[in-house]
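Before a colleague's protein record goes any further, I have to sign it off. Thanks in advance; the entry in question is below:
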Amino acid sequence: MRAAVLYGGRIEVRETADPVPGPGQVLGRVLSCAICASDLHFMDNPDGVAADDSGLWDYRADQDIVMGHEFVAEIVAYGPETERTLAVGTRVTSLPVLLGAGPARIIGCAPEAPGGFGELMLLTESLIRAVPENVPFDQAALADAFAVGEYYVRRAALAPSDVPLIIGAGAIGLSAVAALRRRDVETIIVSDYNDGRLETARELGATHLVNPARQSPYEVWREVALGGRARRVAFGGSDPSTPNCVAFEFVGHPGVLDGIIQQCEQGTRILSAGGPPEGDRISSMVAKRKGVSIQFGGGPAPEDWYGTLDAICAGSLDVSPVIGMAVDLDGVPGALDLARVGNGPARIMIRPTGDTALPAAAR
């Protein structure tokens, strides 16, 4: 098959071996796959992958790896020991985990688990779900991205007095905006340096947009949540009815988490999804003094993933505002460079079939 192959730390668009489905696996022809920041983290930071002891990732510089874990494919063939309940040709997507004879792997993150940056990929039969024909396959491919935002918002368990502040309006930050809006959260503050992504956040339900090059998002939070009053006191005496800040960190660059700690309100809860793979340092004494709570990653859970897919298929969740560009396999190296510097749309879709036209609503 033809694919955008990760080999020796670089992307090469060329022929590579066709994947062969093993026990319980399905061979799929890729219709659409999105580029995610975690693809770049995997590609650019192999040492960070090696430090993970879960075994779900397996970076091998001397073997072909076909990345891509946000996808829709059509069933081409079944491997052995499969139920074959869906017909060949059915459009499907899946929680991006490959199960079979070997160890469990994240699809697109190991040589034996090829993902959506190629013409063919492997899926786990027990995890696939059919995508109705009336649902645009680009939108169904984003179930994984929007499930991450759903996971973080669910784990935040916002109280009525909590006012969320989203730092970073990439696809995951935008998915959190959608998850907050689906819960009828009245005030959603979003901060990003990219004005185009801020406008996408508005489309998805954000109420206050902040470009930190022009204004501090923390000052905006204080104005919106506290009416411009002074900071909450550092030790005792605070009014329990005073709104609390729940900050979502969706950037993933060193220093961002510490910047939140330095500038946030007393008692802020931070949910950190960014997690720069090269590691980070935080001002633990400041966090201690302010009583900051920090929760790191871990999701999404299957309930978030499949619930998000159901919402997309039912039409109750419109993810199209984040889609701004589509490329064929030859366009993958340039699209990855664009995603790496954060100047492109929140989601760039890869179409191995070569059809790169976007519906008018997705432009």
Remarks:
- Residues 143-156 form the longest helix (14 residues).
- The chain has a mean pLDDT of 92.
